[in-house]
Amino acid sequence: MTTRRSAMVTAWLAAALAVASLSTGADTYVPPFDLPMLGGGTASEQDLTGDVVLVFLVPDCSACETVIDRVVGVRAQYPGIRFLVVTAAPSDALEQELATKELSVPVIVDSYGLLASLCLVRTVPAVCAFSSTRLVNRLDWVFSDEDLRKCLDALVAGVAVAWPWGADLLRGQAAPAFPLRDKAGETAISQDSLAPSLIAFVMEDCPYCQSMLPALLRCCESLAVRLVVVGTEDAGAFSALASERLEVLPDPEREIADLYHVSSVPTFFLIDSHGKVEWLHEGVMEGLWSICEAALRRNQ
Hints:
Elements: H1 2-22, E1 34-36, E2 42-44, E3 51-56, H2 62-75, E4 81-87, H3 92-100, E5 107-109, H4 114-118, E6 126-131, E7 134-140, H5 145-157, E8 197-202, H6 207-211, H7 213-219, E9 224-230, E10 246-251, H8 255-259, E11 267-271, E12 277-282, H9 288-298
Parallel strand pairs: 3-4, 4-5, 8-9, 9-10
Antiparallel strand pairs: 1-2, 3-6, 6-7, 8-11, 11-12
Helix pairs in contact: 7-9
């Protein structure tokens, strides 16, 4: 047991270093791992040698079923690529779905999220392409048949694709509308109501978030501010700050945080008058009001 635990800790540390290298532009290789496979046996980093595609799926997911259909549709055209399914929640339903759609591939059980962490997979379905254990591309849902083919063509051609990570995926894109209800519990917060506004993702017990409150309150003078309090039911002490121009939204299930690919707090998104993400920043910063004021002037 001790040996297995030590191996797991070592693998997690290696994964953490690999993830850190993504932000510096360094090549990312899979650390040593030993994970069970559905139906018996184990998978290791050796299974990712050559051209390999990992398809991250979960049971009872309509989007995952769509991706299975797309992989089945293109798989025969790429005989040199090995496809593997990765799931954190193995089940008879997933096994039956793969069998029904005739996607007969090995299934890796990633219960602790080691491979998902390495690839920064936060939502499923997702597709990650590896060349000789090196991560070279990733597709996050929603992606098209054409996107999948381009990913596979690049893998065959030996081309590593540079792509944005995390919250940066939304830069310049339309800000996602919130799935939560307003205080009356009647209407979802629409995309139109986001423009212009500043969305700040915070946590109640985060001292760095608390240190940004004066700047956020000052921003209320210029634009609507929404504090999304991640991982709490009632937003705690932040609720007392709610006003006509500052809306406090508890996000206990990370519904909004996941929509915005938020991985740390505080994280800020400035939504322009057209409903697009004009600017974003992860972490504590100075000059928040000045940045917001300048961005709003540019969009007038």
